[in-house]
Amino acid sequence: MSKKITIAIDGFSSTGKSTLAKQLANKLGYVYVDTGAMYRAVTLYAMQKEYISADFFNKEALIKALPKIKLQFIFNSDLGFGEMFLNDSNVEKQIRKIEVSGFVSKVAEISEVRSKLVEQQQEMGKNKGIVMDGRDIGTVVFPEAELKIFMNATASTRAQRRYDELQAKGDQVTYEAVLKNVEERDYIDTHRADSPLIVAEDATEIDNSNLSRDEQFDLVIALVNEVTKTL
Ligand code: DC
């Protein structure tokens, strides 16, 4: 059995990072961590406490409440991955809603939020054998990761994918609203002062606008094999 490595998957929203990360974790017997779910759960908490709304954001109150926010991934064997629990409640479905997507980039800009979550993420990955996806995994969380992938696709391709997913779940959204959300998050994610989304120098970039899931998976597994054979 080859040595376990750390795989960091970063990229724009709705580029299929989590699909690829889950496929890899399954194939390799690694742990999968969706760091976006952690930022989403903190956002849900802020919404529940009414710290954030369309025209208002009490950042100080959220920062003060951070020690009260308990985040856990609890493995669901039917789904094959860990579901997000916020203060002991399963919030996996709620955090995927477009209302949460609308606020999450604003919450993810806060340095105190980022440092709390980065610390937890580093702890989860300390024994390697992990596939983690997000925006700053190869640059901030695991700059020493043996394999770094940066995923991209056109905004319209990504919006269509996210729209199809939300429709399938019965969410009443328009394609235009989803595209607007994707473009707004791209802007905030790449322009924030703390840990903006950038391509790590040693990352392999994949534009999957015209790649099937299987083609993409084969490409990345070849990269994993290349890295592990040198260890
Ligand atoms: O991957 P996602 O769309 O579920 O992520 C939700 C938001 O969280 C995204 O707009 C940016 C933020 N995020 C982040 O800033 N850093 C991460 N490591 C993961 C997500």
Descriptive overview:
- The structure is a single chain.
- The chain is an alpha/beta fold and 231 residues long.
- The protein has a single domain (6-215), classed as Rossmann fold (3-Layer(aba) Sandwich).
- 48% of the residues lie in helices and 19% in strands.
- It contains nine helices and ten strands.
- It has helices at 17-28, 35-48, 59-65, 98-108, 111-124, 137-141, 155-168, 175-191, 213-229, and strands at residues 6-11, 31-34, 52-53, 56-57, 71-76, 81-86, 89-90, 130-134, 147-152, 204-207.
- The protein has a five-stranded parallel β-sheet.
- Helix 7 (155-168) crosses helix 8 (175-191).
- The longest helix is centred in the C-terminal third of the chain and has 17 residues, at 175-191.
- The protein starts with 5 loop residues before the first strand and ends with a helix.
- The protein binds 2'-deoxycytidine-5'-monophosphate.
- 2'-deoxycytidine-5'-monophosphate is lined by residues 13, 35-36, 39-40, 104-105, 108, 134-136, 185, 189.
Which structural class do the helices and strands define? alpha/beta
The succession of helices and strands, N to C, reads EHEHEEHEEEHHEHEHHEH
Count the beta strands: 10
Q: Which bin fits the share of residues in helices?
A: 40-55%
What's the end-to-end separation, in Å? 12 Å
Largest sheet report: 5 strands, parallel
What name goes with the CATH superfamily?
P-loop containing nucleotide triphosphate hydrolases
> What ranges have pLDDT less than 50 throughout 5 or more consecutive residues?
none
- Briefly note the CATH topology name: Rossmann fold
What global shape is seen? globular
Bound molecules: 2'-deoxycytidine-5'-monophosphate
Total individual domains: 1
Strand sequence of the main sheet, in spatial order? 2-8-1-9-10
How much of the residues is beta strand, in percent? 15-25%
What is the radius of gyration computed over CA atoms, rounded to a whole number of angstroms?
A: 17 Å
CATH architecture: 3-Layer(aba) Sandwich
